[in-house]
Structures are given as structure tokens and as C-alpha cells.
């Protein structure tokens, strides 16, 4: 445990020297919400979002953005870079198992994800009077399962890529559809119903986040699908992963 702590602290210092993903994860979703919140029409109730403002309905999509950026852009690139530079191979020749390096990176990136979502929710409440989730436990469970599923997919990309550029390209196969289905590019209420139904069961579970947010609560089937994605992606990543 002491070794893992030291590695995590070292990796944190290295991440802060090139903080692009850290800053993006912590600030970008909130910045987008601030820009949207400055538009009066976004702060009014829409026929496409009955019972809530357009801005309120878009917050779960900003949660999707945070998870996807860190899980499908940051972590695959970092791990593939370590493999490309031979760092994982060199760790394998020391008493410190390279798995601890991967765990440290997961700790850092998941922490940034949690921080980014926290900043988003606090800023939304303070500056735009965005209500919090009506089912906090359902929201938390969806967030945990969705984050695990997305990071699992990111680890699959990192497992099969020989270079950081390749890892980014492979991760994009999942990143772009998830962003689209998650309502980041186009708000979900404006998507065709068939597309919305597909997105309801795709990690990180935007529909379950929405349901926990609006009051109906995440549905068991949605959570079960997320759990299956989380377990399945992590198992596949473990099977495919190579240190070199």
C-alpha cells in the first residue's frame, strides 16, 4: 500500500506538469454549462423538456462528457504511451509490479472525473439554480457503474494499442457514438426516439442519470446493462492486456 501511495503521488506530480486532461476534466463540462446558461432560451422551459428547463435536462449529458473524456481519451493515451516508451516493461523487471502503475493512473483519472462532476453540480446549483438529482443514490450508483464501464472500454483500447496515437484512434470508435447517444453533441430530447432508446442502454447510462435526476429513478434493467458492460469490459481488458 505504501508503494502504491508513492507511485500515485509521483504520477500526480507528472500529470500536473502536463495538465491538459486534468483541466479539461475539471473545467470543460462546467464551462460548457456556463456558456449555455448565458443563453436566456436555454434557461427557460421547453416543449421538448416538459417540467424542466433545457439547461437542467442537459446536465446529465455534461456528466457523460466528463466520464468519456477521462475514460476514453486520457487513460488510454497515458497507458499506451507508457507501453510505447518501455516504462511498463522496465517496471516488470523491478520488485514493483507494473499493475501498481496502472492502478495509480486509474486512481488519478477517476478522482479527476469525480471532481469534474462535483464542480459541475455545485456550479450548476449556485449559479444557475439547477436542481440536484431527486434520487441521489440512484444517481450515484449509475455514476459508479457508468464510470467503471467507460474506463473498462478505455482499458481495452489501451490493451491492444502499441502507441498513444493508436490508442486514441481505437478509443474514438467508442467515444464518438457515446458522446452522440449521450446528448453531448445534440440534446437527447431533439434526437429521434429510436436513437434515444438505443442511448438509454449505452454506457455511461445517460438515461439512468436522467431518470435519477428527474425523479422517476433509474430502472433496474438500465443498471443491470451498465453492470454487465462494466464487468465485461474489465474482463476483456484483463485478457487482452500486454505489458509490452
Automatic annotation (TrEMBL):
Principal cellular location given in the protein's record: membrane
Annotated InterPro entries: ABC-2_transporter (IPR052902), ABC2_TM (IPR013525), ABC2_TM_bact-type (IPR047817), ABC_2_transport (IPR000412)
The keyword Zinc appears for this protein: no
Membrane topology field: Multi-pass membrane protein
GO CC terms of this entry: ATP-binding cassette (ABC) transporter complex
Keywords for this protein: Antibiotic resistance, Cell membrane, Membrane, Transmembrane, Transmembrane helix, Transport
GO molecular function: ABC-type transporter activity
Pfam families: ABC2_membrane (PF01061)
Keyword DNA damage: no
PROSITE patterns: ABC_TM2 (PS51012)
Record-annotated membrane-spanning stretches: 21-42, 62-82, 102-127, 139-160, 167-186, 221-241
Entry superkingdom: Bacteria
All residue ranges annotated as the ABC transmembrane type-2 domain in the record: 20-244
Family named by the database record: Belongs to the ABC-2 integral membrane protein family.
Protein name (Swiss-Prot/TrEMBL): Transport permease protein
Lineage, broadest ranks: Bacteria, Bacillati, Actinomycetota, Actinomycetes, Pseudonocardiales
